[in-house]
Each structure stands twice: as C-alpha cells, then as structure tokens.
C-alpha cells in the first residue's frame, strides 16, 4: 500500500528509506502572527500530514462543497500514497523575539557560520520553518507541500522551494546505491537506518544536558543547494574524476579496490579527494545521514545548466556539518566543479503519538 507510518518517536522522512522524489519548502511567518497562531497551524499541519501520508485528501476532500474552494486541491486523487513522508523543522530565526521563544533556542541552533566556498543567494537560503516532502511520485510530493502551504495561508508564506527529481543517497542497506549527476554512486558510506547505534550517536537528539527536552527524538537538518559546474566536469578525464572523488566511477569501490563496500582507507587516497576529506577518521568521527536529491532548474543567466545536488543531511549536532564543510570548502578537489548557492539549518521536531500535535512541547 506504499504507506509510511506518520506516528512514532521520530518524524518519518529521516530514517525512512529515501524515496525517489522531493519537494522541499522553506517558509517564513507573517507579521502579526502569535505563538497561539503557530500552535493552531501545527495542529492543522499534523492532522493534514497524517491524512496525506495515508494517501487521503486533506480535510473534507477534493469535492467537499460546490460553492466553496474544495478543502483539497485534488491533483493526488486516484494516486497511491507513494511512500509520502512530510518532515517539519524550525529555523534559528523562529527564536528571535517575535514569539517569546528565545529562551528555548538550543545553543546549537544558531545561523550557520560563513563557510569557505559559500556563494549563497539569500533568497534561496534560511527560513523560519521548513517542510521536506518525499515520495516515489513527484505529484504526490508537490500536492503535499501545496496543500500544507494553503493551510498556512495568513500565517506563513513560502520563502523558497526546491524540487528534486532523483535521490542521491541510500539510507537503508536494502536499497541499491543511486548515482548523482556526476555519474558517481552516492550514499555508499552513508549512515544507514539499520545501524541503530549510529542513528543514536550521530542522528537523533538525545538526553545530553545541552540538548533541550522539546527536541529529544528530533534532529538537525542542513540543506545546501549545490550547483554542479557540469560543463567543466564533463571535460575532465575519467581518471581525474575518480581522483577527485576517491572512488571508482562504475563500481563505486574505493580507488584500488573492486567492491563498492570494500573498507575505505583514507590515508591511501589522494589528499584532496572528496571521500578522504569527508571520512569520519579525518573529522574526529563526525558523521551525517545524507538524504539529498538531484535537481535541475533549466539554465542560469550565462546559459549554463542550473543543475546539481540539493544536499540534505540530518545530524545530532550541526557542528558535524560545520566541521566537514570547513575542511571540504578549503581543500576538496571537488570545489573545481561545484558551488554552494543556497543554505539553511533547522531543528527537526521529534515525532508524535496519535492524537498529539507536532511541536507542542516547543510552542506550549
Ligand atoms: C561521500 C559526492 C557534497 C559529505 C561522497 C561520495 C560521493 C559524493 C560520490 C562517495 C560515495 C558515498 O560514500 O556516499 C558528493 C557531491 C557533492 C558532495 C557530488 C556536491 C555536489 C558533500 C558535502 C558534504 C559531503 C557538502 C558535507 C559537508 C560526504 C560524506 C561522505 C561523502 C561524509 C562519506 C565519506 C566516507 O565516510 O567515506 N560524496 N558529495 N559531501 N560525502 Fe559527498
């Protein structure tokens, strides 16, 4: 029936085996909105998400009344749930003085610092809230974000959004590793949902004294819109491409090996190769659960393809990403071929039990 359970200690869409399609939206809260309005919105979003992820219409449905706009916009009628998940986060800007939440802001939830290689477009960065909709059908993911935004009218507006057309990661050992737009297998050494210990250590916020109770069972999400300079990459030799990543292109195996999952020894790889620099051994053990998507939005102003990797990564503490990107941004050979043009950080709310409302511990 292609239904992913909505309820649980964690929100779905993180440990869930990565679906094929993405619609991601960052939203800002409108002027004059109160904390009580936000609570009401979360109640509407929780109820709608529970229905959407079962493949049902929002509210009274797409044919609710002839004389008013229907409760649901209708384009998912007749489609399956397509493993839809919707995952909500709150950004650092929600903790300014508008809603009296400053005292609840975790120290880890500051805006991301300036990082080497940043070429960020602020209109494609940040946001008070975010929602990640993933599904195996693009129309189902689109429908979810459209209807959630509609339920938020008067309270929130979409600040920016991103469609992703193919997963670039696997988050389960049961999945085959997909390829990114550079043609390389991506997700081989990812944190996988079956590794409960890694999930607890590296992904879920737990009970450390610096971790607030309202976020326990949640996570942090970093999004980076990373353009690939595809025309440049396509002129690099296969040998150069493999030296850049540190793995073989066809098999995905570490350089010199033939099995994709052969143990990777960072010290044996080129010093500026991506996987050597990104490896936990190079970064005091820092690990991420990567869950990104390929995107293309046509051509940019100079006539080059506006395409790349919409990088999404979940982690227990944003310092993991900051450590990694400080290293990659200065030394990675991949920098010749990529540009980070959008960015955001959100605390991803814990999951809910049936009858409960997302974010209620934060907004109470
Ligand atoms: C591994 C591509 C950006 C962190 C990999 C692999 C590829 C790849 C092909 C090897 C397969 C795998 O183990 O998944 C890319 C491309 C990027 C990009 C094309 C940009 C367009 C980033 C960024 C970060 C990152 C921004 C974090 C700041 C990692 C990590 C690994 C990895 C942690 C696993 C390293 C290991 O433990 O062996 N990436 N990546 N990547 N990447 Fe990236």
TrEMBL record:
Presence of the UniProt keyword Iron in the record: yes
Catalytic function, reaction form: heme b + 2 H(+) = protoporphyrin IX + Fe(2+)
Cofactor field: heme b
Enzyme Commission (EC) number: 1.11.1.-
Annotated signal sequence range: none
Occurrences of domain Dyp-type peroxidase N-terminal (ranges): 11-165
Protein name as it appears in the record: Deferrochelatase
Pfam family, one: Dyp_perox_C
Biological processes, Gene Ontology terms: iron import into cell
GO CC annotation, single: cytosol
């Amino acid at each position: 029936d292609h239904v992913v359970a909505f309820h649980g200690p964690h929100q779905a869409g993180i440990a869930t085996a990565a679906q094929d399609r993405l619609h991601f939206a960052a939203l800002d809260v409108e002027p004059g909105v109160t904390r009580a309005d936000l609570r009401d919105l979360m109640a509407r979003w929780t109820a709608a998400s529970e229905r959407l992820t079962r493949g049902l219409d929002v509210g009274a449905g797409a044919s609710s009344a002839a004389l008013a706009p229907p409760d649901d916009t209708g384009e998912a009628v007749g489609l399956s749930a397509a493993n839809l998940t919707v995952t909500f986060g709150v950004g650092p800007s929600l903790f300014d003085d508008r809603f009296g939440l400053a005292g609840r802001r975790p120290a880890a939830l500051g805006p991301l610092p300036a990082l080497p290689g940043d070429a960020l477009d602020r209109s494609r960065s940040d946001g008070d809230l975010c929602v990640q909709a993933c599904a195996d059908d693009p129309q189902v993911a689109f429908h979810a974000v459209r209807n959630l935004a509609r339920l938020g009218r008067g309270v929130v507006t979409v600040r920016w959004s991103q469609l992703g057309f193919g997963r670039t990661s696997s988050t389960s050992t049961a999945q085959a590793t997909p390829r990114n737009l550079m043609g390389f297998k991506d997700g081989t050494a990812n944190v996988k949902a079956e590794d409960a210990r890694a999930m607890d250590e590296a992904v879920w916020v737990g009970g450390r004294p610096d971790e607030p109770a309202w976020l326990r069972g949640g996570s942090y999400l970093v999004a980076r819109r990373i353009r690939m300079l595809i025309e440049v990459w396509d002129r690099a030799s296969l040998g150069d491409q493999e030296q850049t990543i540190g793995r073989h292109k066809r098999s995905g195996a570490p350089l010199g090996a033939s099995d994709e999952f052969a143990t990777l020894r960072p010290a044996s790889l080129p010093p500026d190769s991506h996987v050597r620099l990104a490896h936990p051994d190079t970064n005091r053990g820092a690990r991420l659960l990567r869950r990104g998507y390929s995107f293309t939005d046509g051509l940019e102003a100079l006539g080059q393809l506006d395409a790349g990797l919409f990088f999404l990564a979940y982690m227990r503490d944003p310092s993991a990403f900051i450590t990694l990107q400080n290293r990659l941004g200065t030394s990675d050979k991949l920098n010749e071929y990529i540009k980070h043009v959008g960015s955001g950080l959100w605390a991803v709310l814990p999951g809910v039990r049936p009858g409960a409302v997302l974010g209620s511990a934060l907004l109470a």
